[in-house]
Amino acid sequence: MNLPENLKYTKDHEWVRVEGDIAVVGITDFAQKELGDIVYVEVETEGDDLEEGEVFGTVEAVKTVSDLFMPVTGNVMDINEELEDAPEVVNTDPYGEGWMIKIRMSNPDQVNDLLTAEAYGALVGA
Questions:
Q1: pTM
Q2: Sheet hosting strand 65-69, strand order edge to edge
Q3: Can you name the CATH fold of 9-103?
């Protein structure tokens, strides 16, 4: 399983890459494998201020629909519109082109409460 060391992770299977006061967010390699073939990504929260733990969108796979949760509090400043036409990119490149949202963090210190790659790996049995 691919767990980049430079990312932070949530117990809900989102990853976070910090770029200054911006958090780039997607779902983990583990999550996309568990979901199976992703057929639709819905994120309609662009411009919204959301709290940590709130739902920012959903991922629909052949087997199931799963909510996506905010890893940190902030403003959803950008969404990956490419996923509208090519949701399968989440399966093929979850940590790169498969990113879902960019958040302007209200409190960047919240990132310190997220899991390291090692801790997330232990959580999912990697």
A1: 0.96
A2: 38-42, 55-61, 65-69
A3: OB fold (Dihydrolipoamide Acetyltransferase, E2P) (2.40.50)
